[in-house]
Amino acid sequence: MVAIDFGRVRRVAWPQVLARVPAWQGIGGVPPTFLVLAGIVSVQIGAALATELFAAAGPAGVVSLRLGFAGVVLLVFWRSSLRIERRALPVVLAYGAVLAVMNFTFYESIDRIPLGMAVTIEFLGPLAVALAGSRRWIDPVWAVLAGGGVLLLTRAAGAVPWTGVVLALGAAVCWASYILLSAKLGEKTSGGGGLALGMAFGGLLMMPVGIARAGTALLHPAVLAAGFGVAMLSSVLPYSVELEALRRIPPRVFGVLMSLEPAVAAVAGLIVLGQSMNVPQWAGIACVVAASAGATRTRGVDP
Fold first, then answer.
1. Is the C-alpha dihedral spanning 54, 59, 64, 70 positive or negative?
2. CB 147 within 8 A of CB 131
3. CA distances (Å), 274 to each of 43, 108, 116, 208, in order?
4. Domain assignments of the chain as residue spans, ordered by start
């Protein structure tokens, strides 16, 4: 079994494949805790803005723009390391396919249910990977706490579109698969060539779906500009600042900070999209955040 550090599961591929990238001169003096929080906020604002773009391009169209633009940026950045061995190609293609499905199911879910609810349910994926195979007595407590949190979140909202919940669960499964494939990608490729090709392949997979759903709307300058902004906010910027943060703080601290993501998603949904949540729903999010932080803090502690 591959040992996985929950502190790195959110962007697990990036610390592995970008470890040789020089630190940004401009953010070297920024406290690493602030960088992690800035990355989390950037991701969730990007998701909220993507939701606003659904009316023009639909979830599939937005996913195709996000992955397409991110793939182009990475291909340009890693053009010197795009050659990969043939035996690594299946992993690269699988990585890109899972990335495409993960983003598609997630965006389809936030088109139906509040952003905070979708992110909290999706977070069960990396939490399950972190707990898988563990024999520590405390881990079932975190699993029960997370499950109770999701029940609170979904049962306290009245009539919940269960298609959105199922899609978020599908995104969670894809996220878990993405973590495992990211580890394989780091083993079989060097530099960022494999990551760039995988991202670009995911964009190519989504492009026909996006065109079928959105048509010529994808070519509208405002849609293209917004799609590029979503790609930068949801991919390039957070990956970069989190990479710099990982240079200066222990992975376990990084993981605890990343556990705040469901709560930040709920706040972004409230501020940007006006998606209010009741007290039991906030309690459900708090349960999942506590389970994630607890699983991370006790990782590696002897039973």
1. positive
2. no
3. 18, 18, 12, 32
4. 6-15+29-297
Q: Give CA–CA dist 243/72, Å, rounded.
A: 20
Q: Which among 293, 235, 263 is positioned nearest to 117, based on CA atoms?
A: 263
How far is CA 188 from its chain centroid? 22
Residue 77 phi, psi dihedral angles, 5° rounding: -70, -40
Q: What CA–CA distance (Å, rounded) separates 6 from 301?
A: 13
Angle between helix axes 32-77 and 251-258 (nearest 10 degrees) is 90
Closest CA to 57 of 214, 204, 227: 214
The alpha-helical segments, DSSP class H, found in the chain are 13-17, 32-77, 89-110, 115-122, 124-131, 139-155, 162-188, 193-214, 221-231, 237-246, 251-258, 261-273, 279-297
CB 61 within 8 A of CB 210: yes
- Block mean pLDDT (10 aa), the chain, length 303: 39 42 53 85 92 92 93 80 77 91 95 92 85 75 88 76 93 89 76 79 92 90 94 83 73 77 92 89 91 73 42
Give the DSSP letter string of 71-107. Answer: HHHHHHHTGGG----GGGHHHHHHHHHHHHHHHHHHH
> Between 193-214 and 162-188, two packed helices, what is the crossing angle to 10 degrees?
150
Q: What is the pTM of this model?
A: 0.83
Around Cβ 55, how many Cβ atoms within 10 Å? 9
Place of tokens 């291909």: 75
